[in-house]
Write a structure and sequence with these properties.
4-stranded antiparallel beta sheet, mainly beta, single chain
C-alpha cells in the first residue's frame, strides 16, 4: 500500500510531505519533519510517526490505518496540526 503523508500547521502551512510504501516487512522512512516506522498487518497498516523536530510539538503519532483506497485525501486533527493522508493499493 502506498501512503502519501502531509503535515500541516494550524494555518494550513505545509510542514512536510512524503510518500511511504507499506509492506509486509517493517521499514523506517524519514523526511525532514518526522520518522515513519511502518508495516502492513492483517487488516491495517501500522504506522508510527516520531522524532519530530523541536519546533513541531508532537511526540509520537500512532496510526492504525485500514487497508483501503479512498477517492481523495483524508485527514486527522492533531491539535495544532493536521495530518493528511492518501492511501493507494498497488
Amino acid at each position: 500500500m502506498r501512503v502519501d503523508l502531509a503535515l500541516f500547521d494550524n494555518n494550513d502551512a505545509l510542514l512536510a510531505r512524503t510518500e511511504i510504501r507499506v509492506g509486509a516487512e517493517q521499514v523506517v522512512s524519514t523526511c525532514p519533519a518526522f520518522r515513519a516506522t511502518h508495516k502492513l498487518g492483517q487488516d491495517a497498516a501500522d504506522i508510527v510517526l516520531s522524532e519530530f523536530p523541536a519546533h513541531i510539538d508532537l511526540r509520537t503519532v500512532t496510526l492504525d490505518m485500514p487497508i483501503h483506497e479512498p477517492a481523495d485525501w483524508e485527514s486527522i486533527d492533531l491539535g495544532r496540526y493536521t495530518l493528511a493522508f492518501w492511501c493507494r493499493l498497488d
